[in-house]
From TrEMBL:
Catalytic activity: (S)-methylmalonyl-CoA + H(+) = propanoyl-CoA + CO2; (2R)-ethylmalonyl-CoA + H(+) = butanoyl-CoA + CO2; (2S)-ethylmalonyl-CoA + H(+) = butanoyl-CoA + CO2
Name of this chain's protein: Ethylmalonyl-CoA decarboxylase
Pfam families, A to Z: ECH_1 (PF00378)
Gene Ontology MF term list: methyl/ethyl malonyl-CoA decarboxylase activity
Length: 195
């Protein structure tokens, strides 16, 4: 079989399986789910919180804290929804100048909460998490505020992705910044590698 005949043969097979390939994992079936439905599905996976601190609000500075120290600030479903609420509130911070993204405890963020990821580990769960985080972080990036990530300690997986969404990243000497996704056989689901 020459190359031209080979290509034709391949294309015929691919055309036959195209629709199956597109619906693989049924991800396309979730596109009609509303953001609110995705949020309420994610919010069921509790643990930790993301807080918007107004301690420097009058000076035009907002501080977002990740707070889940018992799991090294891994992001649960609830925290993903919290972060979204913080960003929504910052969108109407009219006198705001800057936002600092940081954490409580001895590291910035160890990525997605693996217990949450396992529990919601279906194509649907992955699609919801990824869609909400992409949307939230795009809105974070588009805030008319100067953004700074203050990071320290292990900052891994989704934590590394989160850290690079700010305009500036200030890292402590003890930071361990790792896009460990490749080793785990996954892509960067929060879009951090497009920054
Ligand atoms: C968006 C896609 C992703 O982000 S996938 C997730 C990628 N992140 C990871 O794989 C990081 C996994 N965690 C680690 O490597 C280590 O826990 C790091 C962060 C280096 C901290 O090590 P170390 O100081 O020794 O603490 P430790 O391992 O004893 O952890 C304390 C407790 O926290 C937990 N923890 C940590 N990270 C997560 C996580 N991402 N999801 C869920 N739980 C996490 C550990 O399991 C440990 O819990 P426990 O005290 O043993 O019950």
């Amino acid at each position: 079989m020459n190359r031209k005949t080979g290509f034709r043969f391949l294309i015929r097979i691919m055309e036959r399986w195209k629709n199956t390939a597109r619906s693989f994992g049924e991800v396309s079936n979730f596109r009609d789910t509303s953001i609110e439905e995705m949020e309420s599905a994610l919010a069921k996976y509790k643990g930790g919180e993301v807080m918007l601190s107004k301690e420097y609000w009058n000076e035009g500075i907002a501080v977002i804290y990740l707070n889940h120290p018992e799991k090294k600030n891994a992001m649960s479903g609830k925290m993903i929804v919290d972060l979204r609420k913080c960003v929504a509130e910052l969108e109407s911070f009219k006198d705001g100048k800057a936002v600092i993204l940081t954490s409580k405890g001895d590291n910035f963020c160890s990525g997605g909460d693996l217990d949450f990821v396992r529990a919601s580990g279906t194509p649907q769960g992955g699609f919801f998490m990824s869609t909400i985080m992409h949307n939230t972080l795009k809105r974070f990036r588009n805030l008319p505020l100067t953004s700074v990530s203050l990071v320290h300690g292990p900052t891994l997986g989704g934590g590394a992705e989160l850290s690079v969404y700010s305009d500036f990243l200030l890292a402590a000497d003890n930071v361990k910044l790792g896009f460990v996704h490749g080793k785990m056989g996954i892509m960067t689901p929060w879009g951090g590698t497009t920054r």
